[in-house]
Amino acid sequence: MRITMIGSGYVGLVSGVCFADFGHDVICVDNDVSKIEALKMGAIPIFEPGLEQLVADNVRSGRLSFSTAVEECVEASDVVFIAVGTPSRRGDGHADLSYVYAVAREIAMHIKGFTVVVTKSTVPVGTGDEVERIIRETNPEADVAVVSNPEFLREGAAIEDFKRPDRIVIGLDDDRAREVMTEVYRPLYLNQAPLLFTSRRTSELIKYAANAFLAMKITFINEMADLCEKVGANVQEVSRGIGLDGRIGSKFLHAGPGYGGSCFPKDALALAKTAQDYDSPVRLIETTISINDNRKRAMGRKVVAAVGGDVRGKTIAVLGLTFKPNTDDMRDSPAISVIQALQDAGASIVGYDPEGMENAAKVIDDISYADDAYGAAQGADAVVIVTEWNQFRALDFLRLKSVMKTPVLVDLRNIYRREEVVRHGFDYTSIGRPTETGKAAKRA
Ligand code: UDX
Questions:
Q1: pLDDT tens-place string over residues 311-357
Q2: How far apart are CA 367 and CA 343, in angstroms?
Q3: In 3-state terms, the chain is what percent helix, strand and coil (to 5)?
Q4: Are residues 397 and 264 in the same domain?
Q5: If you measure from the C-alpha of residue 259 to the centroid of ligand 1, how many angstroms do you get, rounded to a whole number?
Q6: Which residues bind NAD(+) (predicted)?
Q7: Which of 215, 216, 241, 211 is nearest to 228 (CA)?
Q8: Domain range holding 351?
């Protein structure tokens, strides 16, 4: 299959290189000339484990190339994927579809022969209908089928997720397109990954429903964690206790500082907005969104309390800035709100992140950075773990304590065992786990 991937951002690049790795001929297109020039030189614009090598291998094999010339690529393609961004629209929280529609307009005139146009971008229900309308209006001659094929990639594990998906969702109503999409995913199909064919609107909704459900699951366990703290129970045991029930499942039950990232916050909001438009509000998701927004800042207050109620003039070391490990992505990272809340309370912040400091500098003001965890902790009144990078799991507690001003450790990801940290002389606060005394907080 000859595939054009329009949009060489996170989703487009990972999907494009993986399709090439399946044996298809793939051209990744972007209108950012410098990005395409850099990709041609082998420079990958994002940090994603395994991506650089996979790009290099597939470029070498001749199956993957990069271009800014939409016309030529589209003309020569059997399948054109649209993988451009759909950010939250400023002001109303709806998904901004202007990039998707601009691509539809741009490709329409260049479609030659039967071509399947696939939206991979996360788009609200009905977007496929509009993409089809735009293409047919712009080029009534175009022999085209418009398909929805959402992605379920997690940053940091995207290649693995692409190659070993739980399912592939394809929304269409055209038999020829069904054959083409089956061919596109044949290697995975042969590996027993279920191909779920649905209507286009159903497929569009599945993506939002999946992300919203996961956001809700995380938010549920976060609220349980707060309750655990009040009643003297252990949220990790609650997670295990409920997760072993196959109807609930053990994944996405790690309590933490609130979900962030490029998908959950924006997609949950867009779903809530779409549902309101259709006069069918999704109140569980509306509530999830507001709980999660409040939680991120509340984590800042949790740190203030751990330091004794007043951080004015104090220095707090924040370890982990990205919204999760193994990425350099700062979008909607809980660290932003935690740091802001601490700064508002009068603290100075020293941050450290293995990959995210360059992006952090673009979204967080007035913080300084260290070269490693111990550098950040130097002279600090508290260390806060916001993102659970593996290297923080193996910190040398003696060394950490020796460089700090006061040994206060706030672990917003529950990566340590209380006994061990306390044994090293730290005052330790985590999420939803009993204190040393195991006593419940007094009832209000
Ligand atoms: C998510 C979806 O998982 C993926 O299927 C979709 O296509 C894109 O959005 P991603 O944003 O990369 O992927 O990250 P994910 O691993 O899902 O984590 C999202 C956020 O939830 C992170 O901030 C993470 O720390 C948080 N999280 C996740 C928890 O707090 N607890 C959990 O148990 C799981």
A1: 999 999 999 999 999 999 999 999 999 999 999 999 999 999 999 99
A2: 9
A3: 45, 15, 40
A4: yes
A5: 7
A6: 30, 35, 86, 122, 155, 266, 331
A7: 241
A8: 212-429
Ligand 1 nearest atom to the CA of residue 253, by list position:
33
80 and 179 fall within a common domain: yes
Residue 253 Cβ inside 6 Å of ligand 1? The answer reads yes
Co-location of 256 and 193 in the same domain: no
Mean pLDDT of 219-238: 97
Task: Reply yes or no on whether 263 is catalytic.
Answer: yes
Amino acid, single-letter form, for residue 207:
K
Quote the number of domains for the chain.
2
- Distance, CA of 232 to CA of 243 (rounded, Å): 20
Task: Say yes or no: 102 and 249 in one domain.
Answer: no
**Residue finishing a domain among 145, 170, 198:** 198
| Local confidence band at 441 (pLDDT 50, 70, 90 cut-offs) | low
ipTM of the complex: 0.97
**CATH number of the domain enclosing 191:** 3.40.50.720
Full-model pTM: 0.94
Task: Tell me if 269 is assigned to some domain.
Answer: yes
Three-state DSSP at 138 gives helix
Residue 440, marked binder: no
Q: Identify the domain boundary among 156, 171, 198.
A: 198
Q: Which residue has the tokens 């596109």?
A: 184
